[in-house]
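I am sending you the entry underneath: sequence plus fold tokens. Let me know what the token row says about the fold:
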Amino acid sequence: MALVKQMDTPPLFCDGTEYAAGLVRRLLGQMIGDTVGLFGTADFAVSLSGSAVTVAPGRGAIPSGTTESGVYLVESTEATALTLDPADSTRDRTDRLVAYVVPPVTGADTGKWFMEIRKGAPAATPVPPETPNAYVVWDFAIPAASKGVNPSGFDKRFVGGQQMIAGPTITSTERPTRGRPGQIWSDGTTGQLWLWNGSAWIGATDPTLPRGWVGEVKRTTEDTFTSPVLLERLTLSLSASRRYKVTFSAQHHAAGFGPPNGSADIRLAAGTSVSLSSPVIKTTGILKNNATRQTFEMVTTFTVPTSGTYSLGLTANGFDNPALTFSGGNGRILMVEDIGAL
């Protein structure tokens, strides 16, 4: 029975030993939670003048390949100049600027990394090209040459799971799907701080203060009806010690005689099912509006008697005579927010 055993990997940076790239990449990647991101808000910032693209210097953690683990750490020390390809004559196009690593193929090779503008396909409704295992930096809308309009750019550095890495704190405008226990995420839109507790993001500020977004459901299809109907449904885990705000917003059109021409109700039920007969926590009449589609919004606050699973639903009624319509898309949403402790 052995009391001591030499381990199969050397301690890093203990002497002049050369280390396996995969080992170094995995350990350094763990220091940032294998987070794909940049280390400052100015890193890889892009300026666009006509078709000339200039990428600022910066440092980042770039995705590794599908057969590898960890992230690649890269740095550029000077501005990078690139040029967009000429526009298609008749159709728009969306190009994408990415940063990516090409690992060595043989022991004699060295790894390299690149900035590249990858062309999208010209189309009536263009989409950017697929870019797996690459860091998405910027998208460019390339109007058809026949339109005589210059390209425009869209910053993608901190969306789609890509973060601004600042030690144990990460920042972005989209909530990360996961974090490291104890890691803090700063919402780049609201400034609110969130803490990853091992399974979920929870408010990292004073527990009596609002914790913000809890859940939402969006609907892209249009609904027209003249009788009661159940539309949006949202199932959440809610706490009896918290107060919540629910908001429903949509564009609406109500033709017919009135007023009112219809009504909408927000309903709340314990469990995973909500129906037309569930208790109403907010009701609002809808006035005649047969000329334009106007924004309709309902907001109310509520609490629950015991902690557990609850379902909210948005129901509406056209009162038989008018045809009541809620447009799809255009910001149509049923959303719940935590607004503080009781």
